[in-house]
Structure formats: structure tokens, C-alpha cells
Amino acid sequence: MNSGDVLIRGIHVIDAIQRDHEDGRMAHRTVCIVTFDGMQPLDAIGPFEVFAGATKVLGAQRRPAAGYELSVVSEHGTPVTTESGLQIVTARLPSGRIKLDTLLIPGGDGTQSVRRGQPLVEWIRRAATGSRRVATVCSGTFIAAEAGLLDGRTVTTHWARARQLAEEYPRLTVDADPIYRRDGNVWTSAGVTAGIDLALAMVEADYGTDVAQTVARWMVMFLHRPGGQTQFATPVWVPRADRSTVRAAQDHIDSHPADDHRLDLLAARAAMSGRHFSRVFTEEVGETPARYVERVRVEAARHELETTPSSLDVVAGRCGFGTAESLRRAFQRRVGVAPDAYRRRFRSRPNHLRAS
Asked: Left, alpha or beta for 133 (phi > 0: left; psi -120 to 50: alpha)?
């Protein structure tokens, strides 16, 4: 290992897990995270910390029989080098009869070579049959799909890999929008930090909202993003137009979401006809002017809901929706939850965690 490398040591409890199963003494839920060279480190470390944090919370609540037994494994049981150069110490894949609560598969650039390495794919296929649930983060869906675990399921993945996944595995349905989703005993999530949201959702399903929210507070993160929330919830994901006149229109919409942004007015500012402006805007931005305006207004409303106690009618007026009902429809369509529910998640935080 080079002097610049960083080494992370996971919790190795495979032998203990197998002994507990054989003795019938299983108390904690077993979570096995499968790692490989070229994986995205946060896909594994994020969920690991959530499950470990939940175990501490449950211990503090004097629930010693609850919690998680965590293991980080790889095909050869040697340190794996992630795509960023971080090294993670692992245990060898368990052999024999495998019975797990949760089998978690991270993503990363290394998923492409893992799919061609049949021994690991075959082990995952076998381990999944003895697991209560299977979870993937980011492009870990490719490995699960190769193992045949996602046939007939609706799954999500990182938005940049969604089309490839759908083309290469036509037996599954890809929904590129949500942060995470559940289809039966299969849980899938979008990229990188979405794995934390996925793990929090599993903790909530296992031990309740209070435990998941306590973990989220300690991790100083949103409590917690609903699975239906879109991966594309902020304008940051929208391409900026190359043509200066169209980019100027984008900038004006971003800066003044409540202004009148009818097509004819936007086109006039760009010195174009309405039809020509709409065509050029759509080509350069990837969506129509009307959809872009709605996107920006929803983002403005999100900020208002997070930071002010204003009524929905007031928020709707400030953000260009006109009525609370129009805001509700657009918010549900774009974010995947109602604005009232979205605000309650922030209201549930303690005062010192709320925005000023």
C-alpha cells in the first residue's frame, strides 16, 4: 500500500453470524455488504454508518436484542481499492448455507468488470435466495440484474446509467426519477448519497421512524428524503444553454420565478418567434420552456417550505403558481410528495436544526 493510500477496516462478523444461525440464536439483523475493486466507497460506507448508528441508538434505548450485525466482504477477502483510491479491508465471502437479513450491493465503475466475473455474481445469486431483502445502491443494480434478481421488478439507479440498464436488461423496468424505491423484497437507490436515504428507509421499516430520524440527526442530514423524491429536484441538474439568448432566458426565470413567463414573453425577450424559441430552448436545455419554468418554481417553493412558516397560498403566490392547488399538483408531480408532507419533515426537526 502506498503512503498516500487510506485504509478503512470494516466490521467482520461473518463467522459469528453463521454460528448464531446454526444455534438458532439470531437476534440482530445481519447486513452483508459485498465489495469489489472499483466500487464507489460512499455506496458502502454510507449505509454501513446508518446501520451502525441505528444499532447504537437501539442500544441506548435499552433494546439490546435489536440492531444490526454488519459485515463487509469481497470475493477473496483481501483489501479492495475503490474508484477513488480508498482501500477497504474485507472478509472473505461466507461459504455453505447463507442466511442473511439484508444483502447490499454497491455500485461504481467496477460493476462492469464484476458482471463479467461469474464467481461473485453466482455467489450473490445464491446469497439472495437466503436473504430477507436485497438492496442495491447506484449501478449496483447492474450486478443484481446480471444475477437475475431484478427480473419483473421496477427499479431505480443513478440517472446517468438508467438508459444503459434498461437497454441491457429488458426484463426489468427502470424508473430513473426516484431517490430510492422498493419492489417487494428488492430495494434500489440512485447514486452515492442516495444509499444513505435507502438505508434510513430500511431502518425505519425495521425499527420505526424515531430510530431513523435520530440517526439522520446525528449524520446532520435531511430527515430523511422520501423515496419518491426526484433525483432531479434542483435546477443544478439542468444543462445551461450554449446560445446566449436562451441562457439569458434561463437566468431570468431562475432569478424571478414569480414573473410572467408565458412563451410569447420569453420569446420576445430573446428576439425570436414563439415557435422558434420553444424549439431552440428545448434542444439546448432538454425540456420545454413551460416545464423548465415549472421546475424552477417548484425549487423556489421547496426553499419557501423549508425556511418560512408561510401558508401554501402565500408560497404559491411568491413562486408564480397563483393558487395553492396549482402548487400542490406541480409539487407532487416534480418532488413526489405533497408540499404539506414535505414541510412536516422539516417541522419534525428540533429547533436548533431548523433553518433560521
From this structure: beta
Compute, in degrees rounded to 10, the torsion defined by CA atoms 140, 143, 147, 153.
40
96 in the Ramachandran plot: left (φ > 0), alpha (ψ -120 to 50) or beta? Answer: left
Q: Is 82:33 a contact under the CB 8 Å cutoff?
A: no
Question: Highest mean pLDDT range out of 247-251, 261-265, 347-351?
Answer: 261-265
Q: Which of 105, 304, 256, 278 is nearest to 189 (CA)?
A: 105
Closest Cα partner for 316 from 257, 264, 275? 257
Segment holding 104, helix H or strand E: strand 100-105
d(CA 199, CA 194): 9
Cβ-based neighbours of 333, under 8 Å, separated by 6 or more: none
> Do residues 84 and 32 touch, judged by C-beta distance below 8 A?
no
Amino acid 68 reads Y
Q: Which of 333, 331, 350, 356 is nearest to 341 (CA)?
A: 331
What's the Cα-to-Cα distance from 184 to each of 89, 109, 130, 132, 209, rounded to whole Å? 32, 27, 15, 10, 20
Grid cell in block for residue 287: 425540456
Highest mean pLDDT among 12-16, 63-67, 123-127, 242-246: 123-127
Strands 29-34 and 68-74: what pairing?
parallel
pLDDT at 139: 96
Compute the distance between CA of residue 216 and CA of residue 53 in angstroms, rounded to an integer. 9
pLDDT digits (tens, 9 = 90+) for 285-307: 889 999 999 999 998 998 889 88
Q: Which residues contact 125 (CB under 8 A, 6 or more apart)?
A: 147, 148, 149
Structural contact between residues 147 and 120, judged by C-beta atoms closer than 8 angstroms: no
Rounded Cα–Cα distance for residues 108 and 230 (Å): 21
Query: What DSSP character marks residue 160?
Result: G
> What DSSP designation does 240 have?
P
pLDDT > 70? residue 27: no
